[in-house]
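ok, trying the design again with the full structure, not the truncated one.
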C-alpha cells in the first residue's frame, strides 16, 4: 500500500508543487514589479508633473519647460534609474520623448496606455515590439515599462500620461533569486508534507498488514477447528452407526434366545398340559393352558419384532416394503405405499441407514396401529436435495405433540434419537382430530441403481 501511495502521492505532490510554485512566483513578481513601479512613478511624477502643466491647454511643452525637463532627466541620479521617457497626449500623440524625432508623431494607443488614461499606474516588462520602442530596443538591457497619469495641479484631471523605462537588470536578478527561493521553499514544504504523509501511510500500512496477518492466522485456526469439529462429528456419527448396528445384533440375539429358550420351554409346557387336559385333567388346566398360549404369543411376537430381516445390500424400496409387509402380517391392516420416482427407490444406502429406515417405518406403523387403529396408514418416500425423505402417516385422532412431550413415552423419543444418530432429522406433524405424520430426513451418501 505504501508503495502505491509513494507513486501516486509523489505525482500529486509534484503537480501540486508546480502549481503552487507557479502561483507564488507570479504573485511575487506582480508584487515586486508593482511596488517598484509605484515608487518610480511617485518619484517621476514629482519631477515631471510640475513641468508638464502646459499640456492642460495644448499638445506640446513650451521650449522652456522642455529644456527644464531635459536638464532634470540628464542628472546622474535620474539618468541611472530612468533610461527613456515619453509623454503622451490623448489619442496616441507624443508630446515629449527622449528621442526628439518622436515628438509630434501619433501612434495607435496600446492597452496599457489606455489603462493609464483611466487613472491607473501600469508596469511590466515590455517586449519592445512597437514602432515607438525602437530606441529602447537599441539599449540592449531589460527594461521595466511604467505608465503614470499626470494630473492637472489646478483641476486634478489627467492631462497626459508619462511613459518611462527603468533599467530592470537588478530587478530581474532580484526576481530570479526570489523565484529560486520560492521554488526551494515550496519544494521543501511539499517534500516534508509528502514524507510526513508517507510515514503515516507506511505506519498505517504496517498496522493493517499486521492485523491482516493476525486475522489470517485466526481464520486458519477457525478453519482448522471447523475441520476438527467436522471430523469429530463424523467420528461420532460413525460411532452412533456402529452402536446402532451392534444394538441390532444384540436385539437379534435376545430375540433368538427368547425364541429358543423361554418360547421352547413354554411350548413344551403347553403340549404337556394339553395332553394332561385331554386325559381328563382338572378344569383349571384350561385356564393354565390359555395363560401359557397368551404368554407364548407375546414372546413370539416380541422375538419377531426384535429380529430384523436381512437388509444389507437391499434398496430403499425393498426395505420399506419389508417393514410394511411385516406390519400387515402382524396386524392384518392395510398400508399404502407411494414411492415417487422409481430410481429413488432403487438406491442402496449403507446398512446403518437401512436399519434406521426399517425401524422408523416399523415404529411409525406400530404407533399408527396402537393409537389410530391402523386407519389410513400410508408411507411416502423419495429423494429431495440429496436427502431421503420418508413419511409415515395415519388418519387417526391425532394428538398435541407439545402436550405429550414430557409424558415419559419412549417410542417417539427413541425413534428421534435413532434418526439423529445417523445424521438425520425427525419431525412430528399432528393435531387433535387431524391424524399424525412422522417424517424422517436422512442423508444418503451412496447411490447405486
Amino acid at each position: 500500500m505504501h508503495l502505491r501511495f509513494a507513486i501516486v502521492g509523489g505525482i500529486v505532490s509534484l503537480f501540486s508543487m508546480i502549481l503552487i510554485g507557479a502561483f507564488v512566483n507570479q504573485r511575487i513578481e506582480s508584487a515586486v514589479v508593482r511596488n517598484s513601479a509605484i515608487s518610480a512613478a511617485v518619484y517621476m511624477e514629482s519631477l515631471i508633473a510640475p513641468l508638464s502643466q502646459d499640456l492642460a491647454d495644448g499638445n506640446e511643452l513650451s521650449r522652456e519647460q522642455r529644456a527644464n525637463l531635459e536638464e532634470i532627466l540628464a542628472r546622474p541620479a535620474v539618468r541611472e534609474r530612468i533610461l527613456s521617457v515619453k509623454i503622451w497626449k490623448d489619442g496616441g500623440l507624443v508630446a515629449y520623448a527622449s528621442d526628439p524625432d518622436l515628438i509630434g508623431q501619433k501612434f495607435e494607443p496600446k492597452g496599457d496606455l489606455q489603462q493609464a488614461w483611466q487613472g491607473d499606474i501600469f508596469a511590466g516588462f515590455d517586449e519592445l515590439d512597437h514602432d515607438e520602442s525602437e530606441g529602447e530596443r537599441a539599449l540592449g538591457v531589460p527594461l521595466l515599462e511604467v505608465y503614470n497619469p499626470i494630473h492637472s495641479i489646478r483641476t486634478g484631471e489627467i492631462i497626459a500620461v508619462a511613459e518611462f523605462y527603468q533599467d530592470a537588470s537588478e530587478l530581474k536578478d532580484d526576481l530570479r533569486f526570489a523565484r529560486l527561493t520560492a521554488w526551494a521553499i515550496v519544494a521543501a514544504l511539499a517534500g516534508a508534507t509528502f514524507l510526513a504523509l508517507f510515514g503515516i501511510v507506511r505506519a498505517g500500512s504496517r498496522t493493517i498488514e499486521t492485523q491482516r496477518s493476525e486475522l489470517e492466522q485466526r481464520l486458519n485456526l477457525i478453519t482448522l477447528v471447523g475441520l476438527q469439529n467436522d471430523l469429530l462429528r463424523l467420528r461420532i456419527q460413525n460411532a452412533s452407526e456402529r452402536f446402532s448396528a451392534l444394538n441390532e445384533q444384540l436385539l437379534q440375539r435376545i430375540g433368538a434366545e427368547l425364541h429358543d429358550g423361554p418360547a421352547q420351554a413354554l411350548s413344551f409346557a403347553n403340549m404337556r398340559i394339553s395332553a394332561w387336559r385331554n386325559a381328563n385333567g382338572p378344569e383349571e388346566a384350561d385356564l393354565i393352558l390359555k395363560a401359557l398360549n397368551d404368554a407364548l404369543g407375546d414372546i413370539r411376537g416380541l422375538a419377531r419384532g426384535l429380529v430384523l430381516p436381512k437388509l444389507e445390500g437391499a434398496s430403499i424400496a425393498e426395505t420399506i416394503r419389508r417393514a410394511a409387509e411385516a406390519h400387515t402380517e402382524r396386524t392384518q391392516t392395510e398400508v399404502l405405499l407411494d414411492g415417487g420416482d422409481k430410481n429413488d427407490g432403487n438406491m442402496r444406502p449403507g446398512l446403518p441407514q437401512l436399519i434406521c429406515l426399517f425401524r422408523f417405518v416399523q415404529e411409525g406403523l406400530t404407533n399408527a396401529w396402537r393409537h389410530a387403529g391402523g386407519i389410513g396408514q400410508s408411507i411416502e418416500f423419495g429423494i429431495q436435495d440429496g436427502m431421503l425423505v420418508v413419511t409415515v402417516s395415519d388418519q387417526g385422532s391425532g394428538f398435541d405433540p407439545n402436550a405429550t412431550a414430557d409424558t415419559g413415552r419412549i417410542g417417539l423419543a427413541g425413534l428421534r434419537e435413532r434418526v439423529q444418530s445417523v445424521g438425520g432429522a425427525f419431525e412430528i406433524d399432528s393435531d387433535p382430530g387431524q391424524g399424525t405424520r412422522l417424517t424422517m430426513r436422512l442423508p444418503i451418501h451412496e447411490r447405486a441403481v
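Keeping the full-length input from now on. The mean pLDDT is 77.
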